[in-house]
């Protein structure tokens, strides 16, 4: 198998020798762990201590490589974060690849190596996988599904329906970096070099948050649809309103400027390494301190409060002293951002 | 949302109101269960009693609808079977959809309803999910990843590396139905009406097998690459050879005839509702009886033996009294068969 100049062929998904070779020489070597080495159609793992959590995410980001990451690292971070925002410790990942015939094996290797590095850095192994190949023109290079399993310690109860009036709303850092990094690249904008995706695995930050404020009510990562979608989801699930303050929402100047150029609103732009937390007022300062003590939460901020509102509106006090509704986006702002 | 005449739009993957509507009105309604109703980015499940097993499978079958099933039911059966062939009881499934812009919502609903029916019939709920949309021409209607989690009871040790010389090899029924059903449809052959996919969830059959013969060494479902690939995989993993008898391998006459027309070998054709078992000689009759007592194992047969062979060759005694090597396929025999 020529990993330098070769291309994905339909045979790589055919269940025969070519597929076995791709698995052995690429996936097994990169992901290398005892579970994958079982080489069965499933991974046999241990008996976990706690309630199981399961999350799945398919990744179709375009372009595949971008400042701050690629579809490989993103697919590891995204699912780890979806598991971790339940308060769970992520334990295992699966990886399902859909490859397009003709895709360069060298690019696939780069992506797989990046996944492997991200999984290793996070301490969450990729224990089982699957590869399918579709004909040229029926896919787009590589799509990756990752599914994660973790365990929630007893006593931790975090869910989008637990926000209560009086709770504080926090974010772990600057918003909009991921979406703007991708869009700048796509639009070929000159400022693209300065803004990098924030793609990161948040499970250790979240573990520190839960340890210091075990009464956190909600955690969610503001990915597609950005902060606006996340707050509206939680408001709807909990049957509460929210008030946020524009001046307190951390957005980098470059991101603000890029958004203006691209016609985007940073509140709606995807993040891949940020978490939104809702917690009771008495725990807020402890939670904020725990977040700021972690490298991925250094720029954390309290951005607003939960209020009683049967319409579940999210409202923002603007920098100009006004007030506006932060609605869901109704259309597609940024296709294939993750 | 017009589920009768509408089409998938990029907005359905955008994280905004359109996506929320698709999830509420289609996925939630069809899959309906308390875990999905949590409506978080992950499902919080119970603490399981036993070792965890995880399996993943992306489905890209073409065409999407075929005699005996569709991509929806197939995606449920395929992953349940990959979990179950470890001897595990499948507990939960995740579902990740990659939709192509312009795909008819009515077809999507048909697929989702079929998934829901298959999951319900199997007693394995779809507890969490994800939806992505790619632009027209960057996908092919619908791709579905399902990932399954199950638990293996203590004492059960089933793996592809446990085959030993003297062990018997069994299959649960007629081979080649799925692959031939798909290929007949693709090639528009007149006999297409007679052959149906064998797509089925095998976990109950397998539970009965494990209960009656707890010392089963290997179980695997002969999907892509067919019986030939499965036997070669097990032979390689276990470092043993295998001898099978052509006359004892159950293949329907119509499938044999269709294979001749299509230039296929039934040994290499995919199955989606069959299992191959390797077990010690003393348990063979008990295992065979347990298989035949189950509707999905009615036509089970003993097809050969494991032999000592450092080259891990799979050999077949042919109907004509000869002997030939059953090698891996080296190329792609049947693209997008699952």
From TrEMBL, chains A, B:
Residues 164-315 form the PurM-like C-terminal domain. Residues 41-152 form the PurM-like N-terminal domain. InterPro entries: HypE (IPR011854), PurM-like_C_dom (IPR010918), PurM-like_C_sf (IPR036676), PurM-like_N (IPR016188), PurM-like_N_sf (IPR036921). Pfam families: AIRS, AIRS_C. GO terms for biological process: protein maturation. It comes from the Bacteria. Belongs to the HypE family. This is Hydrogenase. It comes from Thioalkalivibrio paradoxus ARh 1. The lineage of its organism: Bacteria, Pseudomonadati, Pseudomonadota, Gammaproteobacteria, Chromatiales.
